């Protein structure tokens, strides 16, 4: 494609944004086209296959000159000779997406028939040549200790503020093998041009997104508002999520935002709360959740979705989800429920409250599902009235990341602040009778909440009431 035609395409794609009616407030744009697709692949996102011992998938973007979806993959060797034994893998034709940053071609390639517990290197073809070699490790077939990262809503201030949290998490914690995202990866409203937001999301995680398999759940912000032919307002999945993530197709039939992955003794089950609440799939998802838990042979079962069962910011819990899914979590003895949406932190071990829960622990009670809510990005909500007594620990106006280590009968959960301070932690031990929870004995920093208009860092309180 000539330079002239690229410029013409850029102008054509920018035109609709400029032609918005005067009543629509302009969506902020980054200066220029900083996230234009280039001659080398970018937005490279690794995801596990349904069976990550044998398969991985990659989604990425190129300029439109790179018509084919083409990768090379090899079992990694330690000398600079990866190309010698690399196999070429192709994917279906890419999908063109126009945006304010110009046209881009999105590709997806699936790697299959891989050897378990093995380091592979792959690279992707762009119009000017290959990407660097990127390495991942397939999962082991048996339970084997591993570490994963759990992130709440990245959503706002993605590059400005969330990026440091993500980078601190990876910098301070080697060996992260999976990343669980609890939805609202980008705001996709009026904060910033949506393509800029996804550019920021990729810049924030950078090569970590390309070498560590990602487990994203959709949040309400992955959906965009639409008006149906009958004039009713509805929602549909926005264009970026399915382009960015080549997910396993093993969830609720027809609902690709639900899926599960077995990883070294843990079954991760990903649900779509927005579709369940707003688009009529609650019953289907609930049946699928129950069946997927019933068939799990994993020692640990972790469920990941966006709208929390127990909220720390809103006046009410998410009643639809609480009614439909909580009984299944209880019946099937789910270990962790990882959520977002509330832009605060909450670790809840009993609906009856923290005091009753602590007393029950002292008496040797079995621990049921542990409910977590967390936030990575800059938007913050104030805690609700229940949050002062119901969850074991909460935070307000605090960016956080969570590192989880799974090792046989022990699961170690640690929550860190943006600057890397230990904020919360507990260990679950799985016995014949069920789980036992122990608070970490490592020192944690003091509870972070606003006091009036003063935030926990001494400046203004940035958490607003929901
Ligand atoms: Fe959110």
Can you offer a commentary on this structure?
Residues 1-20 have low confidence and may be disordered. This protein folds into 2 domains: 42-137, Immunoglobulin-like (Sandwich), CATH 2.60.40.380; 146-464, 4-Layer Sandwich (Purple Acid Phosphatase, chain A, domain 2), CATH 3.60.21. It is α+β, with helices and mostly antiparallel strands. It is built from 9 helices and 27 strands. Strand 1 and strand 2 (56-62) form a beta hairpin. It has a 7-stranded mixed β-sheet with strand order 12-11-10-23-24-25-26, with helices on one face. The chain has a 7-stranded mixed β-sheet with strand order 15-16-17-18-20-19-22, with helices on one face. The site of fe (ii) ion (FE2) has 7 residues, from loops. Fe (ii) ion (FE2) is lined by residues 153, 155, 184, 219, 221, 341, 343.
Gross morphology is globular
Low-pLDDT regions? 1-20
CATH topology of the largest domain: Purple Acid Phosphatase, chain A, domain 2
DSSP summary: helix tally: 9
Cofactors, ions, other ligands? fe (ii) ion
Q: Which CATH first-tier class of the largest domain would you pick?
A: Alpha Beta
Alpha-beta content class:
alpha+beta
Please identify which CATH superfamily of the largest domain we are dealing with: Metallo-dependent phosphatases
% residues in beta strands: 25-35%
Radius of gyration (Å)? 22 Å
Q: How helical, in percent, are the residues?
A: 10-25%
Major sheet attributes: 7 strands, mixed
Q: Output the strand order for the largest sheet.
A: 12-11-10-23-24-25-26
